[in-house]
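Final report, Chapter 2: Outcomes

The project's central promise was a pipeline that accepts a single protein chain and returns its three-dimensional structure in a standardized token representation, suitable for archiving and comparison. That pipeline is now operational. To close this chapter, we reproduce one record exactly as it appears in the project archive, with the input sequence first and the structure output second.
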Amino acid sequence: MKPQLLLLAACVAVAACVPAPLPERTQKAAEAVPVRAPAAALPGERLVQAKCSTCHSLEQAVAGMRSEAEWASVLDQMIGHGMEASAEELSAMRTYLAVRRPNQ
């Protein structure tokens, strides 16, 4: 094959791998989506470690994935068992627990 054809074929292959630009509307919508902080960066992490590990291993206390509403129910149960936490602390803990991943 001639060198010019090889160069042309390489350019076509590279061009096929480059993603097409997003339409303006889609790009603006993507920029408007808030990015959630990693769970470990949330203030509830230390509260969960401090409050939950007094009675449970941390792994047991945070086992499983639950929604914020489900974690609110779990935290209400723990308040019933004697855990002390302000409404602000409960909110921070609930948010942390809902967005963390099992391996965090």
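Archive annotation: The chain has a mean pLDDT of 75.
This record, like all others produced under the grant, will remain available to the consortium after the project formally closes.
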